[in-house]
Amino acid sequence: MKSLEIIGFKRANLDRRSLDAIREEGNVPCVVYGPGIKEQIHFVAPAILFRDLIYTPEVHMVDLNIEGTIIKTILREAQFHPVSETLLHADFLAFSDKKAIKMEIPVKPYGSSPGIIKGGKLEIKTRTLLVKGFANDLPDEIPFDISTLELGKSVKVGDLSVEKFELLNSPNVTIATVGVPRALRGKKGDEEEEEG
Description:
By secondary structure, the chain is α+β, with helices and mostly antiparallel strands. The chain has helices at residues 16-24, 51-54, 114-117, 182-195, and strands spanning 3-10, 27-33, 41-46, 61-66, 69-80, 87-94, 101-110, 121-124, 128-133, 142-145, 154-156, 165-167, 174-179. The strands form three sheets. The protein has a six-stranded mixed β-barrel. Strands 10-7-9-12 form a four-stranded mixed sheet, with no helix packed on it. Residues 189-196 have low confidence and may be disordered.
């Protein structure tokens, strides 16, 4: 999995007034916690460093560089302003290579679906899956094969086979379906009657 670095500086003042000043300076107040960290570390980081982490469908590990100390983390939560959608706060979870972590990983279709060739449309129902595994074993994305999908058929979590990590979503969750367009709905019924 890809990783990126975010450079931060410890915060001494945790009062509300200092938060506004931090944001006005173009920084984001953050906290990191997890294994190996005795007390939460409150820090600030330049908002521009979050662009490749938050405004992308890709998932990244984050090497936090807080005043020279490197902490391996994942982004646990990001809070945004309800109107401007400016990043207001970020929570990071530290992890150890010896302990499994949970993370949302995006899915990606591959193959050529017979249903799409016949005029159907691929509808992605679930864009990410919750997985559990060691950080080094987690993929950038989870591929799923659509080469056998006919019109109206679906791929479910239970259809996937993965190694080195575990899928935590229910096997019955639909990942993608080949939708039947209105123009083809009547034809599909006629074809089934002819076959029967």
